[in-house]
Design a protein that fits this description.
Largest sheet: 2 strands, antiparallel
Strand order of the largest sheet: 1-2
Strand content: under 5%
Number of strands: 2
Number of domains: 2
Radius of gyration: 24 Å
């Protein structure tokens, strides 16, 4: 299968999947509910609509031969590429299975740890930064901001102090919830990540400035 053939096959398959998801999501409320936020079908429907639009754009560019992929007659996938794709697919399957038994947050933490470190070979600084910050971001976006609960499996009770903080009626209630490790540790973790990368940024700037000064002094001495 060539790259050109693979592009149109995948685009059509994803377009059909998008239509199916839109039809299924339309069985739920896809609008905005007053004082509650988006309906249960809102995000699945409109994300599927966006994916369908992207697929149609890809199909259009394929017929017009606009992109390099739509003109390529090269082999679509080699042995080495298949290994990478297979490993990635296995990692995603691991994420889906562990989500059922451990909840999305532990599963996502383990997935990022394995995928970024063992498969991606990234530095521990980047790996730990993402494994700490991404679950916190997802919780804040979906469960706090959009009020959409995500699967937690047996860890559901662990999050009770977090919900106490979210719905605290006064400062005393918020401070009491903050004492729970499930609340305080992620916050301190995100702050530690922010401090680390800020220090890294200014450290690199200082080194760059020192190198520039050294080169300038050397050039002046040479002249």
């Amino acid at each position: 299968m060539t790259v050109r053939t693979a592009e149109i096959v995948v685009a059509i398959a994803l377009a059909l999947c998008s239509i199916g998801l839109m039809v299924k999501s339309a069985e739920l409320n896809i609008g905005w509910i007053d004082r509650k936020g988006p309906g249960s079908g809102f995000w699945p429907f409109w994300l599927s609509a966006g994916m369908l639009l992207s697929c149609l754009l890809t199909i259009y560019r394929w017929f017009k031969r606009i992109t390099p992929e739509s003109n390529s007659s090269e082999l679509y996938i080699s042995g080495s590429t298949l290994k990478v794709v297979g490993t990635s697919a296995a990692s995603i399957l691991f994420l889906l299975i562990t989500t059922q038994f451990m909840g999305i947050y532990i599963a996502l933490f383990l997935f990022l740890l394995i995928y970024l470190r063992l498969i991606g070979g990234h530095s521990w600084a980047l790996v730990l930064s993402l494994t700490i910050c991404l679950p916190v971001f997802i919780f804040s976006l979906f469960e706090w901001g959009l009020k959409i609960p995500l699967p937690k499996a047996f860890t559901d009770e662990w999050f009770y102090p977090v919900f106490d903080l979210m719905y605290a009626q006064n400062t005393a209630g918020a401070l009491a919830a903050f004492k729970a490790p499930i609340v305080s540790l992620p916050i301190f973790g995100v702050l530690a990540v922010a401090v680390y990368w800020i220090r890294e940024y200014f450290s690199k700037r200082r080194i760059s400035s020192t190198d520039s000064s050294s080169r300038g002094a050397t050039e002046t001495a040479t002249d």
